[in-house]
Amino acid sequence: MCIFVFFVVLNLIYGFLIRKNNKKTEEMELLLARKSRLNEIGSLITGINHQLKQPLNSLNLAISNSELLLQKNPIDIEMLLKNMSICKNQINLMNKTINIFRSFYSPNEDISEFCLNETIKSIIYTTNSQFFKYNITVKFEEKSKIFANSIENFIQQILLVLLQNSKDAILEKKDIVDKNIYINIEKFDKDVIISISDFGIEIDARQAKNIFNASKTSSKKLGFGFGLYFSKILSTKKLDGDLVLENHKNPTKFSLKIPLDIRK
């Protein structure tokens, strides 16, 4: 009888410790997710800041020119209409940038149908000015339009982490010849694979084995270790897919595999 009671108590203690450990793990994952999210939003804001400067300058110039035209007699209507068209185009450009940021920042986890090609282009668009400063170009090879029923917001987050990771790797490598980041998308039956590769600094073979651990980072100085860890969780737990490091050097290549329809 005593032995039975002992094992019952032992089992209760064990269950309590397991639940306590699981709770701590969940809290840690939540903190890491928030840290990764803040890193991503910071990078996105930097990109949007650069992206808005050009249309704002163009808008200011067009308005100034219009003011000068209105002071002339007779008024050059054709030139004035041209300036109005420039203003409208620049406003539409800024609106597009703000909408991309709003979409990314939204915590929406609803499943919807969208074009993956356009999702990739929107992330390239927001980082373009920031990368251009370092003479880094993102090259996206698309053969055909691919549509998916998934959670677009999470895919955007993962792609942003991978692009920032590639940028950091390129900046760390001395005497680099190829400063391009390559994005490829391919459809395989019921899945789609988005690959991002670069010829930046390589990832150590030993480090590559634990690249998605919370305590690891893929970059010596500017790494997005938490971002990769969080991206792995998003790909497996939220998107029913996986994020893998296919190659750790020449080029370094990460691949995101997700189902075309997450509902099935």
TrEMBL record:
PROSITE patterns reported in the protein's UniProt record: HIS_KIN
A Pfam family that the UniProt record links to this protein: HATPase_c
EC identifiers of the protein: 2.7.13.3
Catalytic activity: ATP + protein L-histidine = ADP + protein N-phospho-L-histidine
The Histidine kinase domain, residue ranges: 47-262
Keyword Transferase carried by entry: yes
GO molecular function per UniProt: ATP binding; phosphorelay sensor kinase activity
Superkingdom per UniProt: Bacteria
SUPFAM superfamilies registered for this protein in UniProt: ATPase domain of HSP90 chaperone/DNA topoisomerase II/histidine kinase (SSF55874), Homodimeric domain of signal transducing histidine kinase (SSF47384)
Keyword annotations of the record: ATP-binding, Kinase, Nucleotide-binding, Phosphoprotein, Transferase, Two-component regulatory system
Protein name (Swiss-Prot/TrEMBL): histidine kinase
Originating species: Campylobacter sputorum subsp. sputorum
